[in-house]
Amino acid sequence: MNIATIAVGLAVAMVLFLAAYCSVRSFRNGKCSGCKECGRCKRR
Amino acid sequence: MSRVIALAGNPNCGKTTLFNRLTGSSQKVGNWPGVTIDRKEGRIKSIGAVLVDLPGIYSLSPYSPEEVVSRDFLLDSRPDAIINIVDATNMERNLYLTSQILDMGIPTVIALNMMDTVRKDGTVIDTEKLSKALGCRVVGISALKGEGMEELLEAVSSADEAPSPVRLSGPLEKSISEISENLRDKVPEEHLRWYSVKALERDVLAIERIGDSWNKISEIIEKLEKEEDEESDSLVASERYGSISDIVASSVKTKRTSGSYTTSDKIDRIVTHRWLGLPIFAGVMFLVYYISITTVGGWGTDWVNDVFFGEWAIPGAASWLEGMAVDPVLSAFIVDGLIAGVGAVLGFLPQMLVLFVLLVILEDSGYMARIAFVMDRVFRRFGLSGKSFIPILIGTGCGVPGIMASRTIESERDRRITAMTTTFIPCSAKLPIIALIAGALFGGSALVALASYFIGVLAILLSGIILKKWPSLSGTPSEFIMELPPYHVPGIATVIRSTFEKGWAFVRKAGTFILLACGIVWFLSAFDWSMSMVGDINDSMLADIGNAITWIFVPLGWGDEWQFSVGTITGLLAKENVVGTFGVLFGFSEVAESGDEIWPIIAAMLTPIAGFSFLVFNLLCAPCFAAIGAMRRELGTWKATGAAVLYQCLLAYAVSMVIFQIGSLLIYGTFGIWTVAAFATVALIAYILVSKEPFARYRHKTSEAAA
To answer: What pLDDT does A33 receive?
Structure first.
């Protein structure tokens, strides 16, 4: 396995981790697509 | 501690527009009543206060859940001040709420909105006179254009005195003061007059809070009613309107003579016409889909697919990874899985953006509010009210706020039916599926999108009849009273902001949830159960999973190819996944590189009627997980939510089977056992529609469960 494969693999893993984190956080916050139509997204 | 300022007013008088203007937020605004269904908070930095935007209410005797939110906040949270926003083009009706707010004893500033329209009409409002008559500060503003904001903020920051209430006639004031004596020490001092007047009106919620003083108060009310020979709530209402009428007459000079028609009136005579209203709406929606799918949006999508992904992104990424000598498996995962899957979804972004622009223009101009009025006539025949159309309207963007908007409906049964059926209307996430099927099998015809929209409406109407016959959901439809807002030219900033927000939400979802799903789909489609990479996709884990379930969809015409079953299942997570899955499974990266599109592959696998059946099933079946979660919140229990999802799936299955089987019989002359099943399904649906009590045997069970 060359260094480029490791670097790209790590980058892809990080992107997928962030995607998973954002997806889970979005669902846990009760958000949908973040369209702001119902006011939940910006409710503080 | 920051001051808390409540923003209260009638529905569709511009509260959220003012909220956005004062707080710098970008909350959804719409030119129809009921856009705000829950309270929202924001900070006014210049005066260091918290502004709370409340759902619109016509009076402080609420009927629907979102109206209760407003009243409870004003009574229980005791804001430091209230900005009562009043539509200056319709003062008499708006000041009815004002007269009740002034009774609450909370410092109030009246923001007289839409002053620009009033000036244009040649009407002159003397705000000084109005201020004296109402006993509180009145500021003329235009929330849309930002006029009068500084003066309003100055008035709000200096408002610290309780306003003087609008006085009623002698006998009523006498009864109010007698009731007040009975309520002293039982309700907050500043709300004493408000509770007294509400008790006089026999307001149910006020009576609940008053408790054991009610018997004495009841005697006072009966005495008044005997003397005046009229019910007390009618007396209060007519006195209020009388006082308001005097105040308006003394401070407003209108140019318009009674009986003359405004431009809005003239347009309404055509677009809300008894016979022309619906055909005009169908024509408008055809034009919307024609522009967004076939022409402008279609050209954009072609460019993104053929040039951006076909010539740049996919070949560029592939050659870069090859040049870096990255492992071929990882390279395939990135190119064939992530980029191909997300690319297949993002390819539809131009069509969606054009659709969003057109829908925002229709909403903001005030046309969609007319459609709710037109649809009321149709919906009422099917056991629903026009109020159910507002959630459907919102559901064209995203099903989740659409389901939540069902809260504006007073009747619980109507509310539950609306929450169960709103997702039948194609939301923006379903547009890529519509565009894909239209492009692959129907030459990109806008009629496919139009048919999808009206099949959604028909499914709602059909469900209105079917569900109203279910014992626990039966009842007469709610009354629908809606004020039609005047037409206006949509604000460019509103159109751009709303389109950008919806488009960005789509891109964000594609970059997170869809990306992840495409990665999983690629993994399952590239390996077999022994974790060896497969040469033929039909040997993969995903093919095995797909083949295990695909028989279910054989009667619908697309069960022979497991890829469509897998697409439908991944679509339950998010509807965009259907197209993303196809991007991975049909090798979007390879076809894009060669300049071809994914369409010919789908066209070779499905007949047009099977493709249409696939589209209809995905439009009507269970929505995405987020929408199912929203349904759970509105329906209250997982049991009811499960029943709703089951109903949606059964209806989708029945409609798709009927479309495919009867369509195939008519077009290709195909006849088989499933054709008989399709006719039996039609007969069953017809029986349920015609029969008075098709679910009579469940009445007993339902009553027991309810008890």
So the answer is: 47
- Structural domain boundaries of chain A? 1-44
CATH number listed for the domain at residues B170-253: 1.10.287.1770
Q: Which of A28, A38, A41 to mutate to test the interface with B (most CBs of B within 10 A)?
A: A38
Does A11 touch chain B if contact means CB atoms closer than 8 Å?
A: no
CA distance B420 to B424: 9
How far B43 CA sits from the closest chain A CA (Å)?
10
| ipTM, interface predicted TM-score of the complex | 0.83
Q: Which residues of B touch A38 (CB under 8 A)?
A: 28, 37-38, 400-401, 404-405
**B261-295 pLDDT tens trace:** 778 888 999 999 988 999 999 999 999 999 988 89
Phi/psi of residue B276, each to 5°? -85, -25
Maximum average pLDDT range among B20-29, B141-150, B537-546: B537-546
- Residue B401: which of B618, B210, B627, B570 has the closest Cα? B627
Which SS3 state, helix, strand or coil, does residue B3 take?
strand
The CATH code for residues B3-158 is: 3.40.50.300
* pLDDT band at residue B682 under the 50/70/90 scheme: very high
Residues of B in contact with A17 (CB under 8 A): none
Task: Determine, for residues B36 and A39 on separate chains, whether the beta-carbon distance falls below 8 Å.
Answer: yes
CB B305 within 8 A of CB B347: yes
CA distance A41 to chain B (A): 9
Q: Where are the domains of chain B?
A: 3-158, 170-253
Question: Does the distance separating the beta carbons of B512 and A23 come in below 8 Å?
Answer: yes
Q: Average pLDDT, stretch B679-686?
A: 95
Integer Cα distance of B671 and B660 in angstroms = 11
DSSP letters of B543-563?
HHHHHHHGGGGGGGT--SSHH
Cβ contacts (< 8 Å) between A33 and chain B: which residues?
398, 400, 428-429, 502, 505-506, 508-509, 626
B154: how many CB neighbours lie within 10 A of its CB?
15
Per-residue confidence at B681, pLDDT binned at 50, 70, 90?
Answer: very high
Cβ atoms of B383 and B464 closer than 8 Å? yes
CB atoms within 10 A of CB A25: 11
For residue A35, give how far its alpha carbon lies from the nearest alpha carbon of chain B (Å). 6
The span from the CA of B165 to the CA of B60, in Å, is 15
- For residues A31 and B606, the model is more confident at B606
Q: How many CB atoms lie within 10 A of CB B358?
A: 21
Closest Cβ opposite residue B400 in set A4, A20, A32: A32
Does A34 contact chain B (CB < 8 Å)? yes
> Which residue carries 């907050």 as its tokens?
B188
- Looking at mean pLDDT, say which of B492-501, B510-519, B655-664 comes out highest: B655-664
For residues B472 and B46, the model is more confident at B46
Distance CA B163, CA B172 (A): 20
Q: Which of A12, A33, A38 sits opposite B404 (nearest CB)?
A: A38
**Residue the block writes with tokens 């007073």:** B410
Q: Do B41 and A38 touch (CB under 8 A)?
A: no
CA B40 centroid distance within chain: 17
| Interface A:B, Cβ pairs < 8 A | 108
H or E element: which one contains B8?
strand B3-9
Chain A nearest C-alpha distance from B86 (Å): 22
Q: At which residue do the structure tokens 């254009």 appear?
A: B145
Q: B130 with B246: CB under 8 angstroms?
A: no
DSSP reduced 3-state for B5: strand
Range B34-50 average pLDDT = 77
pLDDT at B306: 85
Whether B707 shows a pLDDT value over 50: the answer reads: no
Of B216, B271, B310, B262, which Cα lies nearest the Cα of B122?
B262
Q: Distance, in angstroms, between A42 CA and closest chain B CA?
A: 8
